[in-house]
């Protein structure tokens, strides 16, 4: 292996899943120790640019703090008599579909990451090759044109920077949002924005909406023996 090459190891997502089905595996990337050391130095500079509503890969933040924040917002709204609709968005294969040119432009324009750091990150993403190893058998190498390394130090942080614009998109429509890596939760009271907002979100990331898993939940109070009802669609 050399500095621009990395090994991908398929790791099954959950023990109960069928090991014969390819989609049940997550590709974990392994890089050289020297690269990981350099990544940790760069990561310290990137942390300060993460959005406040992103609970992933930040000190004193976790899935638990993200859930508590969303739960608190919902309970406060329900106490005030509102109906709350919770929408959960999850990009399919988010780590593998990041557009490098969009990411590089965003780092410079939105976060002010420029100079040597910007050039290094550009070099870090370009001309990379990968190969897969299973049971000590290695595949042929291939060039990586999109995505960031899942399992690396910088990969998750670069993904967080990539999805950062969603905060402004949702806030412009008065929507509360919480992000954890490629998982996004937004909740609104008494109304649901249509697909146009989700389209803006997907377009800003250079990803098609078909790459989205969308789920919705409704919270609120209803009279005794009656179902809580609301009309909404996406």
Your description of this structure?
There is one protein chain. The protein is an alpha+beta fold and 234 residues long. Helix content is 33%, strand content 23%. It has helices at 33-47, 63-79, 100-109, 115-125, 155-162, 166-171, 195-204, and strands at 5-12, 25-30, 84-91, 128-134, 137-138, 142-144, 176-180, 183-189, 212-219. Strands 1, 2, 4, 5 and 6 form a five-stranded mixed sheet that branches. Strands 7-8-3-9 form a four-stranded antiparallel sheet. The protein is globular.
Residue share in helices? 25-40%
Radius of gyration: 20 Å
Unreliably modeled segments:
none
Overall outline: globular
Note the beta-strand portion: 15-25%
* Helix/strand class: alpha+beta
The major beta sheet can be summarized as: 5 strands, mixed
Measured between the Cα atoms of the first and last residue, the distance is 47 Å
Number of strands: 9
Number of helices: 7
What's the mean pLDDT score? Answer: 74
Order of helices and strands: EEHHEHHEEEHHEEHE
């Amino acid at each position: 292996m050399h500095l621009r090459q990395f090994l991908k190891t398929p790791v099954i997502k959950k023990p109960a899943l069928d090991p014969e089905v390819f989609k049940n595996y997550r590709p974990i990337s392994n890089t050289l120790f020297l690269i990981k050391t350099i990544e940790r130095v760069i990561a310290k500079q990137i942390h300060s640019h993460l959005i406040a509503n992103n609970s992933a890969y930040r000190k004193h933040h976790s899935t638990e703090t993200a859930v508590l924040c969303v739960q608190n917002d919902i309970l406060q709204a329900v106490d005030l008599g509102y109906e709350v609709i919770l929408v959960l968005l999850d990009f399919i294969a988010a780590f593998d579909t990041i557009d490098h040119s969009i990411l590089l432009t965003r780092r410079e324009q939105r976060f002010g990451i420029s100079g040597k750091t910007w050039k290094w990150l550009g070099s870090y993403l370009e001309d990379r090759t990968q190969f897969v190893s299973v049971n000590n058998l290695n595949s042929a190498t291939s060039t990586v044109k999109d995505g960031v390394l899942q399992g690396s130090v910088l990969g998750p942080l670069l993904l967080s920077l990539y999805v950062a614009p969603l905060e402004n998109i949702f806030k412009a429509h008065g929507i509360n949002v919480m992000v954890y890596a490629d998982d996004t939760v937004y909740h609104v009271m008494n109304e649901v924005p249509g697909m146009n907002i989700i389209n803006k979100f997907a377009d800003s990331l250079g990803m098609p909406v078909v790459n989205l898993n969308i789920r919705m939940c409704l919270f609120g109070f209803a009279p005794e023996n009656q179902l809580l009802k609301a009309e909404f669609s996406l």
